[in-house]
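User: I'm putting together notes for a lab meeting next week and I want to include a structural view of one of the chains we've been expressing. I don't have a solved structure, so I'd like a prediction I can at least talk through. The sequence is below, exactly as it appears in our construct file.
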Amino acid sequence: ALVSEADPEVFAIYERLMRNKKNRVVVPIENRCCSGCHITLTAQDENLVRKGERLIFCEHCSRIHYWPESEVLEEEAAPKRRRRSSRANA
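Assistant: Thanks for the context. Below is the predicted structure for the 90-residue chain, given as structure tokens.
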């Protein structure tokens, strides 16, 4: 079902990774590192993974990164800080 909907190029990459990396193809970012190879990500790649707009592959091990859902939910649930008004009270 999903295979027929998947981008053929992405699916080919996924299959290659499955052969080479076994069951650890899609891995979370943990402490700003790829949890597959433990190499530190650049800030730019970390932000791209967090946005989730496209697939981001590890530059070192080629695994597909994702941002852990629990961290996304915590960031969304965190109360927004209110800025102090710069106006003097009259």
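A couple of points you could mention at the meeting. The longest helix spans residues 8-21. The mean pLDDT is 80.

User: Perfect, that's what I needed.
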